[in-house]
Design a protein that fits this description.
Helix content: 25-40%
Radius of gyration: 23 Å
Distance between the termini: 65 Å
Oligomer: single chain
Number of helices: 6
């Protein structure tokens, strides 16, 4: 799809209106419910395989568009479509024109696309939090076997994250946009440095 963030609002609206008519192998039953389906755009924000950045940007877009999903005849409707490659695609149908005028909903969407065209992260804080949360989850999963070797205190995941950040930062660097992925050796080093006792200590 054309990168509408590099277009003026007027040009972007003209490109987006009825864009779904040009989608290949696409069926959108909802068009039958609309008085003027060619005035609507279908846009996607993320899919089954999306990384943290795409999910973060999707969350920002969702928050900004939410006010326009309300009411009896909203200008924005959430969409979830199946796809043979991505499993599913999530996004929105957005009314581009109402009574011949560009809707506020498409103005909001276009403004976000302009921001995205200049910088790929719509919210640094949201993205950073997702990186942190994903890394904590990866730490928990990587420690699956080590949990049986050590006595781990409550909140050990955050303590290990902080120790790795200070001493082995590569272990918690975002990889493939799915958070940091420390190895068992990284975790064992952190456990020992933090003084976590093994189940064999003192026995």
């Amino acid at each position: 799809m054309t990168d509408v963030g590099h277009l003026s609002l007027k040009d972007a609206a003209e490109v987006l209106a009825g864009n779904w008519l040009n989608f290949q192998s696409f069926s959108w039953p909802r068009w039958k419910e609309l008085d003027d389906p060619s005035s609507w755009a279908v846009v996607y924000t993320h899919n089954r395989d999306s990384g943290l950045l795409e999910l973060s940007n999707a969350a920002v877009i969702a928050r900004k568009l939410e006010p326009h999903t309300e009411g009896d005849d909203p200008d924005v409707t959430e969409e979830c479509h199946s796809h043979f490659l991505h499993g599913y695609l999530d996004g929105y149908s957005i009314r581009v024109f109402r009574g011949g005028e560009i809707t506020e909903a498409i103005r909001v969407y276009h403004a976000l696309q302009e921001r995205f065209a200049n910088y790929p992260i719509l919210s640094e804080s949201d993205y950073s939090q997702r990186e942190h949360d994903a890394t904590i989850k990866n730490i928990e999963q990587a420690a699956h076997r080590l949990k049986h070797e050590y006595r781990l205190p409550e909140g050990w995941e955050s303590d290990v994250y902080c120790w790795l950040s200070d001493h082995t930062p590569r272990a918690v660097e975002n990889r493939d946009d799915h958070g940091g992925s420390p190895t068992e050796d990284d975790l064992r080093q952190a456990f020992d440095a933090l003084g976590y006792e093994s189940h064999g200590d003192g026995e």
